Amino acid sequence: MSCRLLATRYHLVGAWTIILLIWTMLPSAASDVTQSATSLVIEKPDLTMGELLVSPSSVAPGQKLRVRFQPRCVGKLGGGFYVDIHLTNYPRTVNDQTRIHRAAIGAGYLISQPTFPLSFEYTVPPNKASGDYYIVAVADATNAIAEKAESNNTLAKPFAIQRINATAAAPASRLRTSVKLANLRINPASARDGDHVVVGCDVINDGQTRIASTRVSIVLWDQEPVIVDSQTTYQMRAHPMVSIPIRDLAPGSTLPVAAGIRVPWNIGAPAGGDTIKAELDPEELLHEPHADNGLSGILDITVAQRPDLKPSVEQNSAGSGQMDSTVAFRMSLVIVNVGDRASLPSVCKVKFQHRGTDGQWANMLGGAEHEIPVLAPGTFYRVEHAYDARGWFSGTVKMIITADADERMIEPNERNNVEERTFIKPQPHY
């Protein structure tokens, strides 16, 4: 009798073990969704110093130092920030006493594209001691932006301050370095997005020294439409096109240069056209007197077709407005291209918010991110997904669906990218 009871007990233990193993495996998919959704909710930007150039690499007290810097951002900024430039003996020691320059960067300056580099000149104090120094650039110097990573905001470049023998330097100082651009040519002057355009200009060495190496950078500037408080405004955006190398340019000579570019199809084209800019020596490695080595011209771009993505909810498990499940929230949505041009591969984000007792919405319930393939005009893509709702707060829940969440495309209607639905999650029954 005791043996039979013992056998029965072992069978029960084995059955419970199997059930526990299955139970531990079940929430794994839901937990993955919750973890990925938690990272999506934060959506913090990340500021870095993408470029820092200092010229010349050795300078005497009283002479000018040229500093060129380029902050970059991944993600969207909620406001502006400062970039501080410091001169210091030690790259990790910066404070108000070492700061030599501060630049204010607006929030719209860094959206989705690299910034156009900024630069300034600094005169080394006449009584500055000789030695090895660093120019240190610090993005978000006042910690105004909450970022994904705070440790990558600083970039340092070494240079030297050396006193020069005036007698030995006299012959070299009489040789003047000067190079400039002239006669910007844009052919054709009008184009459609996707067309080829030839941009050319003349590089003139009107100095007394041979230019061993430099380059001409061709940049297309457009005005990107941005909707703020239901009002459409435009902000400048740079599209680097091509770099033309210049080598061995003798004094007094002129070198015609040209390069072909393709107009980006996602260019913004409000009335008035877009700007083509040719910039000589963009790194400012040549120590020459011209303050602005750039030429600008207008390229009239015509854009007739655009993709236009619009999300809509087909069905969900709270169709009546009342969530009938405390475990899973099921949803089927479609992304439709209502435009007249095929879209790029894009991202659709779904997130859920909870309204607190103070009436404010908070990103506390997670969400998910879905890859949307290329959609021809008039076609759609369906997404079906289930969300783990066990950890959600009871009360009012808002679902927000955003098409083209990574903003890869400029669309004729940016307002129809977002679809919202509100539900009530009841108290769980135990």
Description:
The protein is built from 3 helices and 24 strands. The protein has a 5-stranded mixed beta sheet, with no helix packed on it. Mean pLDDT is 75; it is low at 1-13, 20-42 and 166-173. It has 430 residues and is mostly beta strands. The longest helix is centred in the first third of the chain and has 24 residues, at 2-25. The protein is flat, with a radius of gyration of 30 Å.
Strand and helix layout:
Blueprint lengths: L1 H24 L1 H16 L3 E10 L2 E2 L4 E11 L6 E8 L10 E7 L12 E6 L7 E9 L14 E8 L4 H8 L5 E9 L2 E3 L3 E10 L5 E18 L2 E19 L4 E9 L11 E7 L13 E9 L6 E8 L11 E10 L8 E10 L5 E2 L4 E6 L7 E9 L6 E8 L15 E8 L5
Parallel strand pairs: 2-8, 10-16
Antiparallel strand pairs: 1-3, 3-6, 4-5, 4-7, 7-8, 9-11, 11-14, 12-13, 12-15, 15-16, 17-18, 18-22, 19-20, 19-21, 19-23, 23-24
- Describe the sheet with the most strands: 5 strands, mixed
What average pLDDT do the residues reach?
Answer: 75
Task: State the order of secondary-structure elements, H for helix, E for strand.
Answer: HHEEEEEEEEHEEEEEEEEEEEEEEEE
Tell me the fraction of residues in β-strands, as a range.
Answer: over 45%
Based on CA atoms alone, the radius of gyration comes out at: 30 Å
Structural class: mainly beta
Low-confidence stretches: 1-13, 20-42, 166-173
* Bulk shape: flat
Beta strand count: 24
Distance between the termini: 40 Å
Give the strand line-up of the largest sheet.
2-8-7-4-5
How many distinct helices? 3
Helix content: 10-25%
